[in-house]
Structures are given as C-alpha cells and as structure tokens.
Design goal:
This protein is of the alpha/beta class. It has two domains: about 70 residues, no CATH class; about 60 residues. It has five helices and three strands. Strand 1, helix 1 and strand 2 form a beta-alpha-beta unit.
Length: about 150
C-alpha cells in the first residue's frame, strides 16, 4: 500500500477537480459513470484547500466552452486536478492543459519583468519562460494543423 505524505504548510485557496469530457462526445453509456476516482481525490484534498470545486463538463454547459473555462480557471483557481479516465479526447485534453500553461507562463513572464527592476538576474528567468511558452505555442499550433489535416 502506498504511503501518502501531505505537506500541511501548502494550502491553496481554490482547487478545481475537472472531468474534461464534453457531453456531445459521450455515448449514453459514458454518462452513466461518474468520475468516481476524481471524487475520491477531491475528498482527500479537504482540509488542504480553502474551497473545492468539481466540474463535470458532460453536464456543465457553461464551462464546456473552452474560453469560458479558461477564464474561470485563470480568475478563480489555484490548483487543478484533471481526470483522464479514457484515451478518447486525450489529445484535446492535453491541448487544453497546454493552453492553460501558456496563460500561466505569460503571467510569470510579467512577474519576471517586474522583478528584473530590482534583480537583473530575473531577466534570465524571463528568457527561460518565454522560450518555454514559444515552444508550447508551436506545439499547439502544430496540433491544430494536424487536426485540420486529419479531419
């Protein structure tokens, strides 16, 4: 049995537990199965975060729109846990996670530029962040192009 260690000094204000599968792509059988594993993980996070939100995109129409989901996450969420229970839509889910990361890296770039006013070595951090963001954006661009070619 694995041993789980919690760092009780780390506390997040708002954690999101996300089942990323969209209803329109689900069969009626898929709708019968709740994201039970995700629910267990969310329950185990109680006491470590101030607030827990669970979103099952099969039923949450408003957040099924990617732009609205990303906006909600950027404004509200400190940490996210994503349930990937099936291999279907795996590529799309990875693209969504990479888009979230691009947004977060942009924020970190801004922070690094601000920090460079007092600490010139922060420019190195900015350059590393920018290189990572450009790499992710190229990967996302290629992914979208591949989807157009295949579909």
């Amino acid at each position: 049995m694995p041993v789980i260690c919690y760092n009780t000094r780390v506390k997040y204000d708002h954690a999101l537990f996300l089942n990323p599968y969209i209803e329109s792509n689900n069969t009626s059988v898929m709708k019968l199965f709740p994201p039970t594993g995700l629910e267990y993980v969310a329950t185990s996070a109680e006491g470590l975060v101030g607030r827990i939100s669970m979103l099952d995109l099969r039923y949450e129409k408003e957040h099924s729109d990617t732009a609205k989901l990303l906006d909600f996450i950027s404004k509200e969420i400190d940490i996210i846990c994503v349930n990937i229970g099936w291999d279907r839509q795996f590529k799309e889910i990875c693209d969504l996670l990479n888009r979230m990361l691009v947004d977060r890296i942009k924020e970190q770039e801004t922070e690094a530029i601000e920090a460079s006013k007092a600490d010139p070595s922060a420019l190195q951090r900015y350059q590393e962040l920018r290189a990572r963001r450009v790499q992710l954006m190229l990967q996302l661009e290629k992914s979208q192009t591949d989807g157009i070619i295949q579909g």
